[in-house]
Protein backbone atom coordinates (compact mmCIF):
# COMPACT_ATOMS: atom_id res chain seq x y z
CA UNK A 1 0.00 0.00 0.00
CA UNK A 2 1.28 3.47 -0.92
CA UNK A 3 0.32 6.83 0.66
CA UNK A 4 1.19 10.32 -0.49
CA UNK A 5 1.05 12.81 2.40
CA UNK A 6 1.45 16.54 1.78
CA UNK A 7 3.27 18.59 4.41
CA UNK A 8 4.74 15.34 5.74
CA UNK A 9 7.96 16.92 7.00
CA UNK A 10 6.60 18.01 10.37
CA UNK A 11 3.63 18.30 12.71
CA UNK A 12 0.55 16.18 12.01
CA UNK A 13 1.79 15.16 8.54
CA UNK A 14 4.97 13.64 9.93
CA UNK A 15 2.99 11.87 12.64
CA UNK A 16 0.59 10.39 10.05
CA UNK A 17 3.62 9.22 8.04
CA UNK A 18 5.06 7.47 11.11
CA UNK A 19 1.78 5.79 12.06
CA UNK A 20 0.93 4.62 8.55
CA UNK A 21 4.56 3.63 7.94
CA UNK A 22 4.59 1.45 11.04
CA UNK A 23 1.54 -0.35 9.63
CA UNK A 24 3.56 -1.22 6.53
CA UNK A 25 2.35 1.54 4.22
CA UNK A 26 5.01 2.94 1.87
CA UNK A 27 5.21 6.69 2.42
CA UNK A 28 5.71 9.33 -0.21
CA UNK A 29 6.85 12.32 1.83
CA UNK A 30 5.32 15.37 0.16
CA UNK A 31 7.21 18.50 1.19
CA UNK A 32 7.87 21.87 -0.42
CA UNK A 33 11.47 21.94 0.82
CA UNK A 34 13.77 19.25 -0.57
CA UNK A 35 16.12 19.42 2.43
CA UNK A 36 13.29 19.17 5.00
CA UNK A 37 11.68 16.39 2.95
CA UNK A 38 14.89 14.37 2.61
CA UNK A 39 15.62 14.83 6.32
CA UNK A 40 12.17 13.35 7.03
CA UNK A 41 12.84 10.41 4.71
CA UNK A 42 16.05 9.73 6.69
CA UNK A 43 14.15 9.94 9.98
CA UNK A 44 11.43 7.55 8.78
CA UNK A 45 13.89 5.12 7.17
CA UNK A 46 15.86 4.92 10.43
CA UNK A 47 12.62 3.67 12.02
CA UNK A 48 12.27 0.94 9.41
CA UNK A 49 9.64 2.81 7.38
CA UNK A 50 9.78 2.68 3.57
CA UNK A 51 9.78 6.32 2.52
CA UNK A 52 10.79 8.55 -0.36
CA UNK A 53 10.66 12.29 -0.98
CA UNK A 54 8.42 13.99 -3.49
CA UNK A 55 8.46 17.76 -3.91
CA UNK A 56 5.02 19.29 -3.52
CA UNK A 57 4.49 23.01 -3.03
CA UNK A 58 0.83 23.97 -3.00
CA UNK A 59 1.83 27.47 -4.12
CA UNK A 60 3.52 26.05 -7.21
CA UNK A 61 1.28 23.80 -9.30
CA UNK A 62 4.22 22.74 -11.52
CA UNK A 63 5.55 20.75 -8.56
CA UNK A 64 2.18 18.96 -8.30
CA UNK A 65 2.14 18.09 -12.01
CA UNK A 66 5.77 16.95 -11.92
CA UNK A 67 5.11 14.81 -8.86
CA UNK A 68 2.24 13.09 -10.65
CA UNK A 69 4.61 12.09 -13.48
CA UNK A 70 6.70 10.15 -10.95
CA UNK A 71 3.78 8.23 -9.39
CA UNK A 72 1.94 5.40 -11.13
CA UNK A 73 -0.48 4.33 -8.46
CA UNK A 74 -1.67 5.53 -5.06
CA UNK A 75 -3.82 3.89 -2.38
CA UNK A 76 -4.08 6.92 -0.12
CA UNK A 77 -3.81 10.63 -0.83
CA UNK A 78 -3.64 12.58 2.40
CA UNK A 79 -4.05 16.31 1.90
CA UNK A 80 -2.51 17.50 5.14
CA UNK A 81 -0.43 20.56 4.17
CA UNK A 82 -2.10 23.76 5.26
CA UNK A 83 -1.56 27.21 6.67
CA UNK A 84 -3.45 29.24 9.25
CA UNK A 85 -4.42 32.88 8.76
CA UNK A 86 -1.93 35.55 7.79
CA UNK A 87 0.97 33.17 7.56
CA UNK A 88 3.22 35.53 5.61
CA UNK A 89 1.48 38.85 5.69
CA UNK A 90 0.99 39.31 9.40
CA UNK A 91 2.51 36.88 11.87
CA UNK A 92 3.68 33.29 11.87
CA UNK A 93 1.10 31.72 14.16
CA UNK A 94 -2.65 31.56 14.05
CA UNK A 95 -3.96 34.78 15.61
CA UNK A 96 -7.25 33.84 17.26
CA UNK A 97 -7.91 37.38 18.50
CA UNK A 98 -7.70 39.08 15.12
CA UNK A 99 -10.77 41.21 14.31
CA UNK A 100 -12.72 40.09 11.25
CA UNK A 101 -12.59 43.67 9.93
CA UNK A 102 -8.77 43.56 10.05
CA UNK A 103 -8.52 40.82 7.43
CA UNK A 104 -7.12 41.96 4.12
CA UNK A 105 -7.81 40.53 0.69
CA UNK A 106 -4.22 39.26 0.71
CA UNK A 107 -4.85 37.35 3.96
CA UNK A 108 -7.83 35.63 2.39
CA UNK A 109 -6.17 34.99 -0.96
CA UNK A 110 -3.01 33.55 0.56
CA UNK A 111 -4.84 31.08 2.79
CA UNK A 112 -7.40 30.09 0.15
CA UNK A 113 -4.62 29.54 -2.39
CA UNK A 114 -2.88 26.95 -0.23
CA UNK A 115 -5.70 25.28 1.68
CA UNK A 116 -8.38 25.28 -1.00
CA UNK A 117 -6.89 25.80 -4.46
CA UNK A 118 -3.73 23.80 -3.68
CA UNK A 119 -5.75 20.92 -2.25
CA UNK A 120 -8.13 21.10 -5.21
CA UNK A 121 -5.21 20.80 -7.64
CA UNK A 122 -3.82 17.81 -5.69
CA UNK A 123 -7.16 15.99 -5.94
CA UNK A 124 -7.65 16.81 -9.60
CA UNK A 125 -4.16 15.70 -10.57
CA UNK A 126 -3.88 12.57 -8.39
CA UNK A 127 -7.43 11.21 -8.72
CA UNK A 128 -6.55 9.30 -11.92
CA UNK A 129 -3.65 7.69 -10.02
CA UNK A 130 -5.87 6.38 -7.23
CA UNK A 131 -6.48 2.61 -7.15
CA UNK A 132 -10.07 1.32 -7.56
CA UNK A 133 -10.83 1.51 -3.83
CA UNK A 134 -8.38 4.34 -3.06
CA UNK A 135 -9.07 7.02 -0.47
CA UNK A 136 -8.54 10.76 -0.37
CA UNK A 137 -8.38 12.26 3.10
CA UNK A 138 -8.46 16.00 3.75
CA UNK A 139 -7.31 17.20 7.16
CA UNK A 140 -9.73 19.86 8.32
CA UNK A 141 -11.01 22.02 11.20
CA UNK A 142 -14.32 23.12 12.79
CA UNK A 143 -15.69 25.79 10.48
CA UNK A 144 -18.45 27.23 12.69
CA UNK A 145 -17.40 30.62 14.07
CA UNK A 146 -17.85 30.93 17.85
CA UNK A 147 -16.52 33.31 20.52
CA UNK A 148 -13.26 31.41 20.86
CA UNK A 149 -12.70 30.31 17.30
CA UNK A 150 -13.27 32.59 14.31
CA UNK A 151 -10.14 32.91 12.18
CA UNK A 152 -11.81 34.13 8.99
CA UNK A 153 -9.29 33.16 6.32
CA UNK A 154 -8.46 29.78 7.87
CA UNK A 155 -12.09 28.77 8.47
CA UNK A 156 -13.25 30.03 5.07
CA UNK A 157 -10.53 28.10 3.25
CA UNK A 158 -11.34 24.87 5.12
CA UNK A 159 -15.09 25.39 4.67
CA UNK A 160 -14.46 25.57 0.92
CA UNK A 161 -12.33 22.45 1.21
CA UNK A 162 -15.11 20.64 3.09
CA UNK A 163 -17.65 21.55 0.40
CA UNK A 164 -15.24 20.17 -2.20
CA UNK A 165 -14.87 16.97 -0.15
CA UNK A 166 -18.64 16.47 -0.11
CA UNK A 167 -19.07 17.37 -3.80
CA UNK A 168 -16.46 14.81 -4.88
CA UNK A 169 -18.02 12.25 -2.52
CA UNK A 170 -21.41 12.75 -4.16
CA UNK A 171 -19.84 12.22 -7.57
CA UNK A 172 -18.08 9.03 -6.39
CA UNK A 173 -21.39 7.72 -5.07
CA UNK A 174 -23.32 8.61 -8.22
CA UNK A 175 -20.67 6.93 -10.37
CA UNK A 176 -20.86 3.80 -8.17
CA UNK A 177 -17.15 4.24 -7.54
CA UNK A 178 -15.45 2.34 -4.72
CA UNK A 179 -13.24 5.36 -4.12
CA UNK A 180 -13.76 7.43 -0.98
CA UNK A 181 -13.06 11.03 -0.05
CA UNK A 182 -13.58 12.34 3.45
CA UNK A 183 -12.37 14.91 5.96
CA UNK A 184 -10.80 14.26 9.33
CA UNK A 185 -10.83 16.88 12.11
CA UNK A 186 -8.02 16.03 14.53
CA UNK A 187 -9.11 18.72 17.06
CA UNK A 188 -6.56 20.89 18.85
CA UNK A 189 -3.04 19.60 18.21
CA UNK A 190 0.13 21.23 19.50
CA UNK A 191 2.19 22.08 16.42
CA UNK A 192 4.07 25.02 14.88
CA UNK A 193 0.82 26.08 13.19
CA UNK A 194 -0.61 27.35 16.47
CA UNK A 195 2.58 28.02 18.41
CA UNK A 196 1.91 24.73 20.24
CA UNK A 197 -1.04 26.33 22.07
CA UNK A 198 -4.03 24.61 20.47
CA UNK A 199 -6.48 23.12 22.91
CA UNK A 200 -5.47 25.53 25.68
CA UNK A 201 -9.10 26.65 25.94
CA UNK A 202 -10.52 23.27 26.78
CA UNK A 203 -7.40 22.29 28.68
CA UNK A 204 -6.56 19.42 26.41
CA UNK A 205 -3.77 19.63 23.88
CA UNK A 206 -3.34 16.57 21.71
CA UNK A 207 0.17 15.70 20.60
CA UNK A 208 0.91 15.35 16.89
CA UNK A 209 1.61 11.65 17.55
CA UNK A 210 -1.88 11.13 19.03
CA UNK A 211 -3.44 12.91 16.05
CA UNK A 212 -1.32 10.86 13.62
CA UNK A 213 -2.50 7.60 15.17
CA UNK A 214 -6.18 8.64 15.00
CA UNK A 215 -5.86 9.67 11.35
CA UNK A 216 -3.93 6.53 10.34
CA UNK A 217 -6.55 4.33 12.01
CA UNK A 218 -9.38 6.04 10.10
CA UNK A 219 -7.37 5.84 6.87
CA UNK A 220 -6.88 2.08 7.20
CA UNK A 221 -10.24 0.95 8.58
CA UNK A 222 -12.72 -0.93 6.39
CA UNK A 223 -15.69 1.42 6.90
CA UNK A 224 -17.19 3.60 4.19
CA UNK A 225 -16.45 7.21 5.21
CA UNK A 226 -17.19 8.69 1.79
CA UNK A 227 -18.43 12.28 2.21
CA UNK A 228 -18.03 12.34 5.98
CA UNK A 229 -16.25 14.90 8.11
CA UNK A 230 -15.04 12.72 10.98
CA UNK A 231 -13.92 14.19 14.28
CA UNK A 232 -10.98 12.74 16.27
CA UNK A 233 -13.37 10.84 18.59
CA UNK A 234 -15.23 9.23 15.67
CA UNK A 235 -18.18 11.65 15.77
CA UNK A 236 -19.51 12.54 12.31
CA UNK A 237 -19.87 16.32 12.07
CA UNK A 238 -23.13 17.41 10.47
CA UNK A 239 -23.62 20.77 12.22
CA UNK A 240 -22.33 23.73 10.24
CA UNK A 241 -24.20 26.47 12.07
CA UNK A 242 -22.40 29.42 13.64
CA UNK A 243 -22.65 29.52 17.43
CA UNK A 244 -23.76 33.14 17.72
CA UNK A 245 -26.42 32.97 20.46
N1 LIG B 1 -2.63 21.84 14.69
C1 LIG B 1 -3.95 21.79 14.85
O1 LIG B 1 -4.49 22.06 15.95
C2 LIG B 1 -4.81 21.38 13.70
C3 LIG B 1 -6.16 21.07 13.97
C4 LIG B 1 -6.99 20.69 12.91
C5 LIG B 1 -6.47 20.61 11.63
N2 LIG B 1 -5.16 20.92 11.41
C6 LIG B 1 -4.68 20.84 10.02
O2 LIG B 1 -3.65 19.88 9.97
C7 LIG B 1 -2.78 20.18 8.89
C8 LIG B 1 -1.33 20.14 9.37
O3 LIG B 1 -1.17 21.15 10.34
P1 LIG B 1 -0.06 21.13 11.48
O4 LIG B 1 -0.73 21.55 12.71
O5 LIG B 1 0.71 19.86 11.44
O6 LIG B 1 0.84 22.37 10.99
P2 LIG B 1 2.42 22.56 10.79
O7 LIG B 1 3.18 21.86 11.85
O8 LIG B 1 2.59 24.02 10.59
O9 LIG B 1 2.69 21.81 9.41
C9 LIG B 1 2.17 22.31 8.21
C10 LIG B 1 2.78 21.54 7.06
O10 LIG B 1 2.24 22.07 5.84
C11 LIG B 1 3.32 22.42 4.99
N3 LIG B 1 2.98 23.51 4.09
C12 LIG B 1 2.61 24.79 4.39
N4 LIG B 1 2.43 25.50 3.28
C13 LIG B 1 2.68 24.67 2.24
C14 LIG B 1 2.67 24.81 0.83
N5 LIG B 1 2.40 25.97 0.23
N6 LIG B 1 2.98 23.73 0.08
C15 LIG B 1 3.29 22.56 0.64
N7 LIG B 1 3.35 22.36 1.96
C16 LIG B 1 3.04 23.41 2.75
C17 LIG B 1 4.44 22.81 5.94
O11 LIG B 1 5.69 22.79 5.24
P3 LIG B 1 6.97 23.66 5.74
O12 LIG B 1 7.60 22.90 6.87
O13 LIG B 1 7.80 23.74 4.53
O14 LIG B 1 6.43 24.99 6.20
C18 LIG B 1 4.30 21.71 6.97
O15 LIG B 1 4.87 20.52 6.50
C19 LIG B 1 -3.22 21.54 8.34
O16 LIG B 1 -4.00 21.37 7.20
C20 LIG B 1 -4.07 22.10 9.47
O17 LIG B 1 -5.06 22.99 9.02
C21 LIG B 1 -4.32 21.30 12.40
TrEMBL record:
This is NAD(P)-dependent dehydrogenase (Short-subunit alcohol dehydrogenase family). It comes from Pectinatus haikarae. InterPro entries: NAD(P)-bd_dom_sf, SDR_fam. Coiled coil: none annotated. Pfam families: adh_short (PF00106). Keywords: NADP, Oxidoreductase. Belongs to the short-chain dehydrogenases/reductases (SDR) family.
Amino acid sequence: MKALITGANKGIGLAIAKSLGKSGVKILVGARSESRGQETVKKLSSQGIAASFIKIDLNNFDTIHNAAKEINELDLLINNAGIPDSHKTDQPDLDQKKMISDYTTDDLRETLEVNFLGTHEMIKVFLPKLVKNGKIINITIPIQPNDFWHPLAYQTSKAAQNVMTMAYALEFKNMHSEKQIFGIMPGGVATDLNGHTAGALDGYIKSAEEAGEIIAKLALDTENHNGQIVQFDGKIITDYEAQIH
